[in-house]
Amino acid sequence: MLKSTFTPIFWVLTPKPNPQNIPSKALTRNFFTNSTPLVRHNASLNPATPSTPASAYIHLPFCRKRCHYCDFPIVALGSASTQTHLDPRVSNYINWLCREITATKVNQPASSTPLQTVYFGGGTPSLVPPALVSSVLETLRVKFGLCEDAEISMEMDPGTFDAEKMREMVALGVNRVSLGVQAFQEELLRSCGRAHGVLEVHEAIGVVKSCGVENWSVDLIASLPRQSSEMWEESLRLTIESQPTHVSVYDLQIEQGTKFGRLYSPGEFPMPSETQSAEFYKMASRMLSDANYNHYEISSYCKSGYECKHNFIYWKNKPFYAFGLGSASFVGGLRFSRPRKVNDYINFVQNLENGLVDSSGDGHIQGKDTAMDVVMLSLRTAQGLDLRSFQESFGGSAVLSLLEAYKPYVESGLVVYLDEQRRTIRIDDLNYSFLNKPNTEKRVAYIRLSDPEGFLLSNELIALAFGVIDSWKDCFPYQEAEAT
Fold first, then answer.
1. Do 119 and 228 share a domain, yes or no?
2. Fewer beta carbons below 10 Å: N end or C end of the chain?
3. Residues 79, 140: one domain?
4. What's the total number of domains in the chain?
């Protein structure tokens, strides 16, 4: 079953027992852990013509304290720390962050490919003073350029900002807020080690709305210790009543090395069972869909037109920059993770400035690895896997192998085949002989997972595709297709 961590751009596929009818040879693997997404860049194989990123993730690691479920690279400032403009730990880090941005090699001048999205994640970015956020944005603008209408997102926690700070952030260009609510019950917030309470949740929602932030998201966590169905329903109801334009719903992931990892085991009391977790997911899908939120990605819901543009860079497997502690970038086909400890990160920046390290690749990537990444990311979305693009990149035989592998799951309702008009193709129209004809791919244009049943088994269904791709005798030649 799906397990996700709590930042919209991070998630984990965790190994689970194979359910009935899922081949035991199917593979699972981790991705988007700890920091920015850890997948390979879907770039051209020709190093002379690499794709240039138009997005940047910025890691601001500061928190008041570490939550009990968190294994992200953070710097805990203390529970009372909300005024950080005089804290040298913050200003020094921002200085090194800007130096990293400045020292990063680029293939083209800033005016040719300005940034279209910037995402401030953490940590708790809203703890950072606006003046320091301004210096980061200005450094990005000088180095890469920044579109006038760029989506600039910031994760913000209740209790870490007021109306004045919110207005200052908006004046700097922040036009999308991801509000880390997590729960609307005091006892759940305390049990998670969150630094805020329910009163601060309502105050933060009021501030965001009063400051004219139209594009804002509420983050919720399901499957918390001792979380009941009634609690989860209340959190969803209060979220819907708050009228955000976006909602992210994450299933608790117990990570080793965290306080929860020491206290609890998945599926064992007081943790919800897998059946209960599945019911939480189905409840979210039903209630948010009934409230006219589009379920556009496994963990993401939005009002029409309010999809997170930055996250779509990940879903479409496009390159992006990343800067800061523990972050991972995808430039030139290279996955490059930065150190998770501050002193090691400072040494990295110094080496970058001295030309001793390079965070970008030469564009060479393996066809099978890229195919796995494309399938893995695409099947997390409601759009699903674009078979036209996949065929252009990997060939018709690759498409047929996936269609054949997923046919039983179309019959069971976990997988959906769509035509070019995104109409569902009935399984009666897809007999086995038809699937083996060369023109099959002309009929089936998309593969997607059903909502919510297919999404719930996304780990296993994606792992099935990994097994199919891994069995390819020859690595299909990969050529980057135009994203749709």
1. yes
2. C
3. yes
4. 2
Most confident of the following: 1-15, 232-246, 267-281, 388-402: 232-246
Helix 458-470 to helix 367-378 angle (10° resolution) is 160
- If asked whether residues 296 and 418 sit together in one domain, one would say no
* Predicted confidence (pLDDT) per residue in 233-272, tens digit: 999 999 999 999 999 999 998 898 999 999 998 888 899 9
Residue 146's pLDDT is 97
Q: What is the separation of C-alpha 113 from the centre of its chain, rounded to a whole number of angstroms?
A: 23
H or E, element range at 377: helix 367-378
In a domain, 323, yes or no: no
128: domain range? 55-315
Number of H helices, E strands in the chain: 17, 16
Residue 66 lies in a domain: yes
pLDDT (tens digit per residue) in 299-318:
999 999 999 999 999 999 89
Mean model confidence pLDDT for the chain: 85
Give the closest residue to 125 by CA, choosing from 180, 52, 185, 60.
Answer: 60
Which CATH number characterizes residue 232's domain?
3.20.20.70
